[in-house]
Amino acid sequence: MSDRTKGIIVLIVIAVVFFEIFGREPLINKINTPSTKKEVKKYIENSKLETFELKEEWLNPNFNIMRKNSRKINHKNQSMDEYCFFVPEHKKYFSIIVYFEWKSPMPTNGETYMRKQTKVLSDMKPGSTFTALVNQNQLNNPEYGTKENPIPIWAQEILIYNGVEVASVDPNATDKESVHFLYYMDAFKPDPELFPKTIKAYLIHYMPVEEFKEMFR
Fold first, then answer.
1. Distance from the Cα of residue 58 to its chain's centroid
2. Based on the domain organization, do 73 and 125 belong to the same domain?
3. 82 in the same domain as 14
4. Which of 26, 38, 202, 208 lies at a 20 to 30 A Cα distance from 73?
5. Is the domain of 44 the same as that of 149?
6. Are strands 92-101 and 151-161 parallel, antiparallel or unpaired?
7. How many Å separate Cα 74 from the centre of its chain?
8. CA-based nearest residue to 99, from 118, 122, 84, 85
9. What pLDDT, on a 0 to 100 scale, did the predictor assign at position 20?
């Protein structure tokens, strides 16, 4: 066997190893759950806006969530965290999903969008109320709603934050306290560019394949 042939074989072996480590799982996920704009749109359209009140402190935040049968991919440029809480009206657990895409352009003003959102949630006290989108398939799925598998919800707007009614704060106020307050309240609202990416990443990497097929068949 010539040195050239040996070199080609070594390169092929290296390529196969890299594919096994970094390429096969994402490829399989995308084949099973292509998550095109059509699926993202359908998921959002089948979600309804609900108002929630945080009755108690968050359960311990679960960073970089991984569900049973989920297909989470460890990717250095993205992750999903959640803030879980119990909703007595539904007798179920829900969780706000926070999506981190480290290289995505997001509004900053000196601080990244995701860090602002995390700070808002971390500092949120019981009694705060907010609106969020809830996918109706998942809401009515008996496999969701436990502490281990809460229903994912998608933040929209804060109504009352730590005792302060957001609508009562003058949006044109120039005092430091009001400006700072509203600056952070805006972080709870979905970023137009990031929001569909969040849903897409969730469908591809976190929703179990069979559930995806059932939802979008």
1. 16
2. yes
3. no
4. 38
5. yes
6. parallel
7. 15
8. 118
9. 45
Residue-wise pLDDT tens digits, 123-175: 999 999 999 999 999 999 999 999 888 999 999 999 999 999 999 999 999 99
- How many domains does the chain fold into? 2
Yes or no: say if 84 and 58 are a contact pair by the CB < 8 Å rule. Answer: yes
pLDDT digits (tens, 9 = 90+) for 6-19: 555 555 545 444 44
Residue numbers of the domain that contains 61: 37-216
pTM: 0.76
Are residue 90 and residue 18 in the same domain, yes or no?
no
Residue 159 tokens, joined = 């109504």
Distance CA 84, CA 124 (A): 12
Cα gap 118→46, rounded to integer Å: 26
Residues in the chain: 217
Q: Residues 197, 104: contact at Cβ < 8 Å? A: yes
Q: Looking at the structure, do residues 56 and 157 belong to the same domain, yes or no?
A: yes
Look-up: residue for tokens 């730590």?
A: 162
202, 97 contact by CB (below 8 A) = yes
Contact 210, 71 (CB under 8 A): no
Q: Is residue 113 a contact partner of residue 194, using CB atoms and an 8 Å limit?
A: yes
Q: For 54-105, how does the pLDDT look when each residue is reduced to its tens digit (9 = 90+)?
A: 999 998 665 555 544 444 444 455 677 889 999 999 999 999 988 766 555 5
Looking at the structure, do residues 80 and 156 belong to the same domain, yes or no? yes
